[in-house]
Amino acid sequence: MAAVAETSLSITEAGGELKLGIAGPLTIEAVARLDRQFRQAVKASPRQVVIDAAGVTALDSAGAWTLRRTSEAFSGRGIEVRLDGLQAEYSALLEKAFIPDPDVPTDEDRPNPLIVITARAGKAMFDMAHVGRDLFGFFGLTIVSLLALLTGRTKLRFVALVSQLEYVGLNAVGIVSLLCFLVGVVLAYMGSLQLERFGAAILTVNLVGISVLREIGVLLTAIIVAGRSGSAFTAQIGTMKVNQEVDALETLGLSPVDVLVLPRLIALFIALPILVFIGDIAGLAGGAMISVMKLDLTIQQFLIQLKGSVDFWDFGTGILKAPVFAYVIAVVGCHQGLKVSGSAESVGFRTTKAVVESIFIVIVLDALFAIFFAEVGI
């Protein structure tokens, strides 16, 4: 059996002319072996390039694409390229070799960065406006349902309410207490380190009292509840949506808002202020522990200093925020659950979105509350 001829590539340069001489079959096997030489050749900068293909005895798609890529690499830099000697039967294949080289970025791969940033910003604004419109619509729907409940035109599912109270309230006491206690510890410890430098270590009690009662207790509790209960609302309702249980409710003439949303909303209305109160106590307990251990205060001295540093509105401003945050967390979680569209992936996406939206809105509202309370002098 006759030996198969091996393809060769000769590269010579003289007088500003680069000549690529190809001999043998230019097929995928030869291209795999000679590709590095072709790529190295196109780095040269001659005045003219001649691709001598007279010795090409066979050509497939890979060979044709390599010839075209090499030719276009030179011509794209303004260098004159001439292809000599290629047999006429291979010309049609060469004309069809238009597959782009993945290593050579095209203009489409590198769009104008300013246009990309502007387009992304515009899309983000449009999406935000769309989400805001849907969310406000759902806020309105829940308010109408609450008014219908208060006027007796619909009834509350007490079994569902008690079940949700256990989940969002009783089962969350441990994690809320622990985290608020630890934050109180950190706040008191770090505060005492700084205040001791000015001989005002006793003001650590004031710092802990005002911070925990006004901000830390309610904000930390709301974030914990948003991550724990808000995500659970979305996952529960979303799974029902996937299993077509929500469609079944509507077929039976029952409103999903009345059956699924109101028990969760009212349960969180009741549970969150209680959790905030527990979180306040836990945070103050953490501060008290550090005060006793690091500042040599007794519990009585801590309580006397605390009583003199805070008033009712320090506690009241925190508690007043709780029902508002509860409403936001419940409505956002249920709204995202009802928007799930038939797959487990959608449940996961909506659950994540519910947590992010809830925490974002809670922090924005907390900032607005802080400004409002400062303006009215409480």
| Main sheet overview | 4 strands, mixed
Quickly count the helices. 12
Mean pLDDT: 87
Shape: elongated
Query: Tally of extended strands?
Result: 4
Strand % is 5-15%
Helix content: 55-70%
Which structural class is indicated by helix and strand composition? alpha/beta
The arrangement of helices and strands along the chain is EEHEHEHHHHHHHHHH
N-to-C span: 100 Å
In spatial order, strands of the major sheet run 1-2-3-4
Parts with pLDDT < 50 across at least 5 consecutive residues: none
- Radius of gyration from the alpha-carbon trace, in angstroms: 36 Å
Describe this structure in words.
With 378 residues, the protein is of the alpha/beta class. Helices cover 70% and strands 9% of the residues. It has helices at 28-41, 61-75, 91-95, 113-150, 158-168, 173-196, 203-242, 245-251, 256-294, 299-309, 312-338, 344-376, and strands at residues 8-14, 17-26, 48-59, 80-84. Strands 1-2-3-4 form a 4-stranded mixed β-sheet. The protein is elongated, with a radius of gyration of 36 Å. The N and C termini lie far apart (100 Å).
Annotate the secondary structure layout.
Blueprint (H helix, E strand, L loop, with lengths): L7 E7 L2 E10 L1 H14 L6 E12 L1 H15 L4 E5 L6 H5 L17 H38 L7 H11 L4 H24 L6 H40 L2 H7 L4 H39 L4 H11 L2 H27 L5 H33 L2
Parallel strand pairs: 2-3, 3-4
Antiparallel strand pairs: 1-2
Helix pairs in contact: 1-2, 4-9, 5-9, 6-7, 6-9, 7-9, 7-10, 7-11, 7-12, 9-11, 11-12
